[in-house]
Amino acid sequence: MPELAEIVKAYDIRGLVPAQWDDAVAEALGNAFVTVTGERRVVVARDMRESGRDLSIAFARGAADAGADVVNAGLCSTDEMYYVSGSRDIAGAMFTASHNPAGYNGIKLCLPHARPISLDSGLAKIRDTAQAILDGEPPHAADLPGTITDNDYLADYALHLHSLVDLTTIRPLTIVIDAGNGMAGHTAPAVLGTIGTLTIIPLYFELDGTFPNHEANPLEPSNLVDLQRAVVEHGADIGLAFDGDADRCFVVDNTGAPVSPSAITALVAEAELAAHPGASIIHNLITSRAVPDIVTENGGTPIRTRVGHSFIKAEMAAHGAVFGGEHSAHYYFKDFWNADTGMLAAMYVLRALGGGETPLSELVESYDRYVASGEINSTVDDALGTVDALAEHYAATPGATIDRLDGLTVGFEDGAWLNIRASNTEPLLRLNVEAATAAEMERHRDDALARIRA
Fold it and tell me: Both ends of the chain: CA-CA distance in Å?
C-alpha cells in the first residue's frame, strides 16, 4: 500500500513512479484535493515526463468524481499553469518533478489566483484524505460529477507576458536557450521566438522526459557546460537555461560565465523599484547580501524569509511586495499573481541588456558584490541533530550571531555569513557561505564542512 507521507513534501508532491505512486494514487489525490478545498473548477497540466499523461488523467478523473469541472491544459510549463490559475480564478494541479531525474514525477497544487498550498495550509489534510481512500475508504462521490474538457492556453500565456515586458524596441540580441529537453522547448518559441529583436539559438528543445542530453537542473554546473560553450561559439549576447518544468531560469553572460541568481534578483528588483518606488522586495535567506543592500539603496524595503515557494508567496501577499527572488533562480512577481516565472525574469534581463550597449558581463558587475560558495550538499545520518550541534558550536563562537528562521544562519564579525539547512526533498544538508573575499569565504566554508562531515 502506498505511503503518501513518503512523497508529500513541505510544499509539493514528489516521488518515483510507479514505485512510490501511480495512477490510483493520483486519482485518490484528485478526489481528496477537491474534497478538502471545496474547489469546483480545476486546471490540470503536465510537463513532458512520460508518466505525466496517465497520472494527470487519473487526477482529473478523481477531481471530477468529487464534483469539480476540470480543464485539461495538456503540456505546460509550471508558470503557464499558474497563468491559467491566476487569469481564470481557478485551482490548479501541475504534474512535474521539476529538475528531478526521469523516474520521478510529482504535483504542484495551488488554489485560485495561484495561491500556494503547503503542509500547514491544506496539503497535509489532502494527503491524509487520499491515504484514507487508498486504505479502503470510499472516495467522495458528488451528486453531480464534474466535467473534463481540454484547452490550450499557450498563446494567451505568451500575450500576457508580452503585456508585462515590451521587448520589441530593444537592440537586436542573440540568445542561446538550453531547454534541457524540458518545457522551455514548448514555451520559449511562443514567448520569445515571436519577437523580431531576438535571434534564438535553440539547444535541446525536443520534449523528452528521459533527458537524453543532460538533467534539466541548471543549478548543477555540469548541466550548464553545453550552454556556456554555445554562447561563446556563437558570439551570443546571453544564454538562458531552464529546468524541466521551466519555472526557473539561469543566466549565462556573453563570456560564458554563469550569472548569480542573486545578481538577477537584484537587477529585477532595481527595475521593479523604478516602477514602484518604495515597494517591498522579498528575498530568501540564502540570497546574497547584495540583494538587501541594493533594494535599500533604491529606496525599497527588503524582507528576508525562508526558502521555498509557498513561504515566498505568503510573504509576497502579506507585505504587498512587487517582486521576490531566491538563490535557486525562482523569481516571483506581483503582476503574475505572486507566482514564480522564469520566463518573465528572463524578459526583464533581456530588456535591461537590450536597452543599452553594455555587455551582460559588465552590466551585472554592480549586482555581484560578494564571494559565495554556492550550495554544497552533504549526506548525514541525522540532519536535524547535526544542525543542532552546529548551533551549539556557533553560539559559543565569539562575535557570532545565529538565528533559526530556516535551518541555522550564522553571522560573523568579519561580515561573512553561512546557512545550513536540511533539504525538503532529499536526505541532505545544504551549506551556503558568503564573504567579502574568497579567502574569508573558503575559511568559513571549510570549517563548516569539516564539522558537518566529521
Answer: 38
